[in-house]
Design a protein that fits this description.
The structure holds two protein chains of two kinds.
Chain A: H1 3-32, H2 40-77, H3 90-104, H4 109-117, H5 122-128, H6 139-177, H7 184-224, H8 227-232, H9 256-287, H10 290-305, H11 308-334, H12 347-372, H13 375-383, H14 388-417, H15 420-425, H16 443-451, H17 460-494
Helix pairs in contact in A: 1-2, 1-6, 2-6, 2-7, 3-6, 7-17, 9-12, 9-14, 10-12, 11-12, 12-14, 13-14, 14-17, 16-17
Chain B: E1 3-4, H1 10-15, E2 19-23, E3 29-33, H2 36-72, E4 77-86, H3 89-92, H4 110-122, H5 129-136, H6 143-153, E5 161-167, H7 170-176, H8 193-205, E6 208-212, H9 215-218, H10 231-262, H11 267-281, H12 284-298, H13 306-331, H14 334-342, H15 347-375, H16 379-383, H17 404-412, H18 417-448
Antiparallel strand pairs in B: 1-3, 2-3, 4-5, 4-6
Helix pairs in contact in B: 2-18, 10-13, 10-15, 10-17, 11-13, 12-13, 13-15, 14-15, 15-18, 17-18
C-alpha cells in the first residue's frame, strides 16, 4: 500500500470518527439523561484527533526510520569490499544495489528468472527498462538488491497494518471514552494549543537550522583550510593550484577581497539610495498634498516589489552598457585613448542599480519614522516662526535620527545580502581595488558560483560557500538586531 | 545676522519687507533683518530637492519598466513562414516500412523537406548546394520535431502536400523585427544579404509574417531561442506557490495566533519575536544554503525538485506572513474579545470564532504579498539546483523543474542576441503575475478593510 493510500484511508476514518463521535455523544447523553459537557462537535473532533494523531505519528516515524534500518541491514550483507575490484566504496555499492533493486521491480517474471540464472545479462536487461547501471556490478549486489526489495516490501506491509490498526484502535478508544461528563472541549483545545506552540517553534527551528547546518559544514571546511587564512587571506582563488600531496594551499580562500567588494558595492548603493530616499520621504511626509502623496508613494513602493533578478537584468543590459558608452564618449572628448574607463560590469553599475532598489526601503521606513514624531514638536517649531525646512532640519530630523539610523542599518543589511543584482552586474573577478569603475565581486556572488553546477559535497571548494554564508548571516544578524533594537527603543520613547 | 536701524518714512518699509518690526522702549521702530528672503529661498530649495527626489524615484521606475517593455514586447510575436511541405515518400519512407515500423520515421531528414518547400516558394533550385546552407539557415531547427510529430500522428500524410506554418530561425526573426542593423556589411551579421532578400520576398507574398508567440508560454527549455519557452518554469513556480500556500499560511497563522493571543510575555516569547523579525531580514541566499544542507544533503530530497524549492520559499515567506497576520489580529478591537469571553466562550472559541474571521482579510492580503515575494525570489533557488535545463514538463513536485525568475536568470546568461528579447518578455510575464497578485491584495484590502 502506498503512503498516499494509507493517508487517504486515515482521512476516511477521520471523517467517520467525527460522525461517530457526534452521534455517540448525543446517544449517550440521551441515554443517561445528563447534559453534555461540551458541544457535540467537540466530541466529534475528540474522536477525530484520536484517530489521526497517533497513527500519523507512527506513520511519520516509520517512514523516517525504516529506510535507514533497511539500509544498515543490507550493508551488513556486503562482503569485504576491499577484495572486489569494480567498486571501492560502500556508498557506491549501496547506490548500485538501490538502482538494481528498483530495476528488478520493473521486470516481468520471465526476465526475472533469466537475470537470476545469468548475472551477466543484468545490466543490459535493466538498461532496456530505463534503469542504467554505473557498472557491471558484482553478484552479491543482486542478492543484496533482492533482500532490499523483500525487506522493504515486508516493512511496508507491516507499516500499513500497524498504522491502520492504530487508527482504528484510536477511533474505538475515543468512542469508548465518550461520556457526557468527559471534557471533550478541553482536550481538543489542548491539542490545538500544542499545534499552535509547535507552529511558532518553527521560526526558532529555522534559525537553529540555519546556524547548525552552516556551522557543521563550516567546521568541516576549517579542517582543510585554517580559519585565519579564510578570514584574513587577501587572495581568492578557490581552485587548488597545489596538487595532491603538497600542502601549500595558502591564501586561496581569502575572504577579504569578497568582503571588500560587498561593502564597497553596498556603500555605493547607499550613496545613491540614502539622499534620494530620505528627501523623498521628507517631501512626501511634509510637503506633498494628499493627492500627490497617494499617487506617488505606492508608485515608489512598486520599486520594492520588483524582483531583484529584474534589476540585475536591467543593470546588465541597460545601465552597464550606457555607463560604458558614456565613459567612452567622455574619454573621446578629453583623453582620446579609445577605451571606456567604466566597464560594463562594475562596482558603479551594481551599486547604482542596487541603490534604485533600496530607495523605497529608505523612503518608506523614514516616512513612517518622520510621521511618528509627535505633532506637538512640529507645531511648536512652526509656531515659533521657523519655516518648514527649518523645522525639518532642526527639530524633526534630530528627533527622528535614531529611528532613521535604524532604518538605514536595515537597508544596509539588505544591500549586503543582495544577490541577483551583483551576480549579473558586478562581475566575478575577486580583487581589491578602490576604483568604482572596475568590477569587484561579493560574498553572495561567490556563494552562488561555488554552489551551482556539479558539486561534490566534501571538497573545500563547495564547503567554503557555507563559511561565506555563515559570515554573511552573522554580519546581517548583527546589523538587524542592532537596528531593531534602535527602532524599538525609539518607538517606545514617543509612545 | 546684521541688525539695522531705520527711521525713515513709510515708503522705506516697503523696500525692507524681509524685516521684522520690533518696538523699543523709546517708541522708535527698529528693523531687524532675520533673513526672510534667504530663508524662503532655502525653504524653496529644500522643497525642490524633495520633489526632485520623488520624481527621480519615479523616473527610475519608468526607466526600468520602459527598458524591459521596449526590449521585451516583441517577444510575444514570432516570425513564422508558411510552407507547402510535400511529405515526399522518397525522403520520408524510401523503403515503404512506415506502416509496419514507426521507428523508421524517427530518423528521417525532415529539415530537407522544409528546405525543399522553401526553395519552391522562392522559385529556387533546391539541389544547389550553396543555396541549401542559406536556405536551412532561414528555418528553425525545431522544424524537425514539428514535421516528425505531424507524420507520426498521421502516416497517411506521406506523399501528400500540406501548408505548414514553421518557425523562422532566430536570426531571421530578429532581422524581420528590425533588431539587426542591416546596413553593416553582411560578413559581420548573422543573416546575409541573400537571406534578407528572401525574407522580404516571402513577407511581400504573405508567406512570412509575425504571429502571436504561444511557444513562450508553453514550451520547455531549449537552446534555440525561437523554441524556448517558460512552460516548465510556470509549472514549477505554480507547484512552489501551492506548497508555500499550503504550508506557510496555516503555520504562519497558527504561530501568530499563539504569539498574539496566548503567549505569556516572557523571555521565550521575546526570543521568538526577535527571531521572527530577524528572519524577515536574513538574506534570501542564506535560506538557499539552509535548503541545500538540510533538505537535499541531510533529508535526501532530489535536487531541482519544486518540492524543495517550495519548502525553502515557505521558510522565507513565514516571517512575512506572521508579521502581517499579527498586525491583522492586533487590529481587531479588544471589545470583540471581551464580548465573546463575556458570554461564556472559551479563549480558543473567542479566537477561532470571532477574532480570526474578522482578521481574515488582513491575513489574506499579507499572504498574497508574501506569495508575490516568494514568486520573484531567485537566489535561494539557484543553490538548490533549480538552474537546470529542463525540457520535460514536471508531472509531480518531485520532478526536476525551474521557476520563472530562475528561467529569466538562465536566459539572461545566454549569449545569443535573440535571448535578450526572450528574457525581457519573460520578465514582462513575471511582472504581470506579480502585478495581478498585488492588485488582488489591494482590492481585497479596499473591499474588506474595516476601521473600528
Amino acid at each position: 500500500m502506498s503512503t498516499s493510500t494509507i493517508l487517504l484511508i486515515i482521512l476516511v476514518l477521520a471523517v467517520l470518527a467525527y460522525g461517530l463521535g457526534v452521534v455517540t455523544a448525543k446517544r449517550r447523553a440521551a441515554a443517561s439523561g445528563e447534559k453534555l459537557h461540551s458541544r457535540e462537535s467537540y466530541y466529534g473532533a475528540f474522536a477525530l484527533l484520536w484517530t489521526i494523531v497517533p497513527s500519523a505519528i507512527l506513520l511519520a516515524g516509520w517512514l523516517v526510520i525504516s529506510p535507514v534500518a533497511i539500509d544498515e541491514a543490507v550493508r551488513e550483507d556486503f562482503p569485504d569490499l576491499t577484495t572486489t575490484e569494480t567498486v571501492t566504496s560502500d556508498g557506491l555499492a549501496m547506490s548500485m544495489v538501490k538502482s538494481i533493486a528498483s530495476g528488478l521491480r520493473r521486470l516481468d517474471d520471465a526476465e526475472y528468472q533469466t537475470v537470476l540464472s545469468d548475472f551477466s545479462t543484468l545490466r543490459e536487461t535493466l538498461g532496456s527498462k530505463g534503469v542504467p547501471l554505473a557498472g557491471d556490478g558484482e553478484p552479491f549486489m543482486l542478492e543484496a538488491a533482492i533482500h532490499l526489495n523483500d525487506w522493504s516490501d515486508t516493512s511496508r506491509n507491516m507499516m500499513s497494518t500497524a498504522v491502520l490498526a492504530l487508527a482504528v484502535l484510536g477511533l474505538l478508544f475515543a468512542l469508548w471514552r465518550i461520556r457526557p461528563a468527559v471534557r471533550a472541549r478541553n482536550s481538543v483545545e489542548r491539542a490545538i494549543m500544542v499545534a499552535l506552540v509547535g507552529a511558532s517553534a518553527i521560526a526558532i527551528l529555522t534559525t537553529v537550522g540555519i546556524v547548525l547546518s552552516m556551522l557543521s559544514e563550516t567546521v568541516h571546511f576549517f579542517r582543510s583550510v585554517p580559519p585565519l587564512e579564510f578570514f584574513f587571506g587577501t587572495v581568492w582563488d578557490p581552485r587548488f593550484a597545489a596538487t595532491v600531496g603538497t600542502t601549500s594551499s595558502d591564501g586561496q580562500f581569502g575572504l577579504i577581497p569578497l568582503l571588500a567588494g560587498t561593502l564597497y558595492i553596498a556603500f555605493v548603493a547607499m550613496l545613491f539610495a540614502v539622499p534620494i530616499g530620505l528627501f523623498a520621504a521628507i517631501y512626501l511626509a511634509e510637503y506633498a498634498g494628499p493627492k500627490f502623496r497617494s499617487m506617488s508613494k505606492p508608485l515608489i513602493e512598486v520599486l520594492a516589489g520588483i524582483p531583484t533578478i529584474v534589476y540585475g537584468f536591467f543593470a546588465m543590459v541597460t545601465v552597464g552598457p550606457i555607463l560604458r558608452d558614456l565613459s567612452l564618449a567622455i574619454d573621446g572628448m578629453f583623453a582620446g585613448t579609445g577605451t571606456p574607463f567604466i566597464q560594463a560590469q562594475s562596482v558603479l553599475t551594481a551599486g547604482f542599480v542596487m541603490g534604485i532598489m533600496l530607495i523605497p526601503f529608505v523612503s518608506s521606513l523614514s516616512d513612517d519614522i518622520i510621521t511618528a514624531v509627535p505633532r506637538s514638536l512640529r507645531d511648536g517649531s512652526l509656531g515659533l516662526g521657523a519655516t518648514r525646512s527649518e523645522t525639518m532640519k532642526r527639530v524633526i530630523l534630530p528627533a527622528a535620527l535614531p529611528g532613521i539610523v535604524g532604518a538605514l542599518l536595515l537597508t544596509a543589511s539588505r544591500a549586503i545580502g543582495e544577490t541577483m543584482i551583483v551576480v549579473l552586474a558586478a562581475g566575478v573577478a575577486a580583487r581589491l581595488t578602490i576604483n568604482p569603475f572596475e568590477p569587484m565581486t561579493t560574498v553572495t556572488v561567490k556563494i552562488v558560483n561555488q554552489l551551482t553546477g556539479d558539486l561534490e559535497f566534501n571538497s573545500p571548494q563547495t564547503l567554503v560557500a557555507f563559511a561565506l554564508g555563515l559570515t554573511l548571516f552573522f554580519i546581517t544578524l548583527g546589523l538587524n538586531i542592532y537596528a531593531l533594537y534602535i527602532v524599538r527603543k525609539y518607538r517606545e520613547q514617543y509612545e | 545676522m546684521t541688525d539695522m536701524t531705520v527711521s525713515g518714512p513709510v515708503p522705506e518699509q516697503k523696500k525692507t519687507t524681509d524685516a521684522m518690526t520690533t518696538s523699543q522702549g523709546n517708541g522708535q521702530r527698529v528693523w531687524r533683518d532675520i533673513g526672510i528672503k534667504r530663508r524662503y529661498r532655502a525653504e524653496r530649495r529644500f522643497k525642490i530637492y524633495g520633489l526632485g527626489a520623488v520624481l527621480l524615484g519615479l523616473l527610475f521606475l519608468a526607466m526600468l519598466l520602459s527598458s524591459v517593455v521596449s526590449k521585451g514586447y516583441t517577444a510575444f510575436q514570432q516570425t513564422e513562414i508558411l510552407l507547402n511541405v510535400t511529405f515526399d515518400q522518397k525522403v520520408v519512407d524510401p523503403r515503404g516500412k512506415a506502416a509496419t515500423n514507426e521507428r523508421v520515421l524517427l530518423m528521417v531528414n525532415y529539415p530537407a523537406l522544409a528546405n525543399a518547400a522553401l526553395a519552391e516558394a522562392l522559385g529556387l533550385d533546391p539541389s544547389d548546394r550553396k543555396l541549401r546552407k542559406d536556405l536551412s539557415g532561414m528555418i528553425s531547427g525545431g522544424v524537425r520535431t514539428q514535421l516528425r510529430d505531424m507524420v507520426m500522428s498521421d502516416i497517411s500524410l506521406i506523399g501528400q502536400t500540406r501548408p505548414v506554418w514553421v518557425l523562422a530561425a532566430a536570426d531571421v526573426d530578429s532581422a524581420f523585427k528590425g533588431q539587426i542593423d542591416l546596413s553593416v556589411d553582411q560578413s559581420r551579421r548573422k543573416v546575409n544579404d541573400r537571406q534578407v532578400e528572401w525574407m522580404n520576398t516571402l513577407a511581400a507574398s504573405g508567406a512570412l509574417e509575425k504571429r502571436f508567440n504561444t511557444g513562450i508560454f508553453f514550451n520547455g527549455a531549449s537552446s534555440r531561442p525561437e523554441m524556448a519557452g517558460m512552460g516548465v518554469a510556470m509549472i514549477g513556480s505554480m507547484y512552489m506557490m501551492l506548497i508555500v500556500l499550503a504550508l506557510a499560511l496555516p503555520i504562519g497563522v497558527a504561530a501568530s495566533i499563539y504569539l498574539e493571543e496566548f503567549a505569556p510575555k516572557n523571555r521565550w516569547t521575546d526570543l521568538i519575536e526577535v527571531n521572527i523579525n530577524n528572519l524577515a531580514a536574513v538574506p534570501s541566499i542564506v535560506f538557499g544554503l539552509l535548503g541545500l544542507a538540510v533538505f537535499i544533503n541531510f533529508a535526501g530530497l532530489p535536487r531541482s525538485a519544486s518540492l524543495v524549492g517550495g519548502l525553502v520559499l515557505t521558510l522565507m515567506t513565514l516571517p512575512t506572513i506572521i508579521i502581517s497576520t499579527r498586525a491583522a489580529l492586533k487590529a481587531v478591537p479588544p471589545s470583540i474579545r471581551s464580548a465573546a469571553l463575556g458570554i461564556g466562550a472559551s479563549k480558543m472559541q473567542m479566537v477561532f470564532h470571532h477574532v480570526l474571521p474578522l482578521a481574515a482579510p488582513g491575513i489574506l492580503t499579507g499572504t498574497i504579498i508574501g506569495l508575490a515575494q516568494a514568486l520573484g525570489e531567485t537566489a535561494p533557488l539557484l543553490l538548490i539546483g533549480m538552474v537546470a535545463f529542463v525540457a520535460d514538463f514536471p508531472a509531480t513536485p518531485m520532478d526536476p523543474a525551474t521557476a520563472l525568475p530562475v528561467q529569466i536568470f538562465m536566459w539572461a546568461n545566454e549569449a545569443e542576441r535573440a535571448f535578450v528579447e526572450r528574457t525581457s518578455g519573460a520578465i514582462i510575464i513575471l511582472l504581470m503575475f506579480l502585478a495581478a497578485m498585488n492588485i488582488t491584495a489591494i482590492i481585497l484590502r479596499r473591499k474588506f478593510e474595516r476601521r473600528w
